[in-house]
Amino acid sequence: MILPDKRYTFDKNRGYTAFDRLLKDESENVNESDTTHFEEVIASNPESQNYEKKQLLIREMTNNLHNRFVYHHLVNFEIITKLLIHRFFEVTYQQTAIQFHLITIAKK
Fold it and tell me: Strand (E) positions, the chain?
């Protein structure tokens, strides 16, 4: 798996997604068109204090299904490991790469 490291993304001010939230979204079949995190994105982004930048942010999020502007979930190695163990994988290796990616290798 290669996932974004939120510390270096647009969402750096948002909190990590709780493992329980991931399980809840899975049980409710939440899909890519979900918008429940958009208010959180706006609230955590300092640029949204500026009206024009906030409107731009809202426009970008409106088309998120196609442009992937906002990440639905933000994870770290601990959450990734919990998720993989939950799905019966064994994590064999993890590393941060080029500051922007969390790399995890796992096997079933």
Answer: 2-4, 90-97, 101-107
